[in-house]
Amino acid sequence: MTRLLSLCLLLLSVSVARAADPGTSLDVRGADGERIPTRVLEPEKGTANPPIAVLLHGLTRRKEDWLSDEGPTHGGVLKDELLRAGYRVYLLDARRHGERATPEARPGALARLAHQGEPSRYVAMIADTVRDAQALLAAVLAKGKPPRVLVVGYSMGAQVGLLLAAREPRVTHLVTMVPPHIETSMEEIAPSRHMARIHQDWLLLTADKDDFAPVVDSRALFDAAPSRRKTHKTFDSGHALPREYLDEVRRWLHADHRGPGRKVP
Hints:
Blueprint: H1 2-12, E1 24-26, E2 38-41, E3 52-56, H2 75-84, E4 88-92, H3 107-115, H4 120-141, E5 149-154, H5 156-167, E6 173-177, E7 201-207, H6 215-224, E8 230-235, H7 245-254, E9 262-264
Parallel strand pairs: 3-4, 3-5, 5-6, 6-7, 7-8, 8-9
Antiparallel strand pairs: 1-2, 2-4
């Protein structure tokens, strides 16, 4: 739980990304009727039925992280790569983040409560975000079946991405950067409790000096997934990956995924 609190403080200390290209808004509602602030960016190569990518931000961050080249996500670079590759890209704010910020229940405050032994509101924030991402996917896929459904997440977004992929078999590809270790006592939102349902093509990027996702926990996540096409790359860094992680994502996106999975030193 101490890791969770420290992670919140780390991400809060990083400057907020500035939006460079807001895209167009999409009117989507969650299962409970709450509006899900969503932006859609169209691919450079216009096609009738492009692959889609859903991008999920980290704790205390917001969807605009994927429009900026600033750290820790350097998301604008990845977003541009996806648009050039022909993806239609969807960005959404997690519960209590971005346009959905709630002064009376900030993510940092919820993390502190979880650290103090009161995790219910933090668990609800993550669980509701997973349900929101699934509602967005359902709305998008109701209009047609794209050739690829990619989910990308950084930190808390990687946690949400894993939970989403575990409950949504229509996700075909998954990229997760430094998913934090979550205590198994928070079963509903702990990825380790749900890895048996991860069958997607999966790229896991972790760090060997990450206090929020120790190497042993990251390896256990990777090994527990039954996916036959999975790749694990570890960087010599802390929770904030070096910008070079984007090169690994780029290679993976353009690789032929028909072969068996592998671990990369």
